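hey can u check if this looks right to u? its 114 residues, i copy pasted from the old doc so theres a chance i mangled smth
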Amino acid sequence: VQLVESGGGLVQPGGSLRLSCAASGFSFSSYPMSWFLQAPGKERELVARTSGGGTTDYADSVKGRYTNTRDSAKDTVYLQMNNLKPEDTAVYYCSALIWGVRYWGQGTKVTVSS
């Protein structure tokens, strides 16, 4: 199983970023795909989770601003982040839950600052 994130960077408050997570080594469409964030000094927390069927749940803090989608043709999941706030600053991790084992990408850093 391999998960490779990309798309992080520095953005001003109110701006947008799209993160990508390219998956390989497993049947992508069969398993839930999630995004977590870990802010400095804090625990890793769930941002969004999309089931194999495409149903997505979001953390309250990002509802209406983030959209998680998955492209089964490309084995890739995308996190579109709009109206970013300084408190969204964190390392974002892609994750797959396969038969009870959670796999992680290496993370991509998002910094929201003026």
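The chain is about 0% helix and 55% strand.
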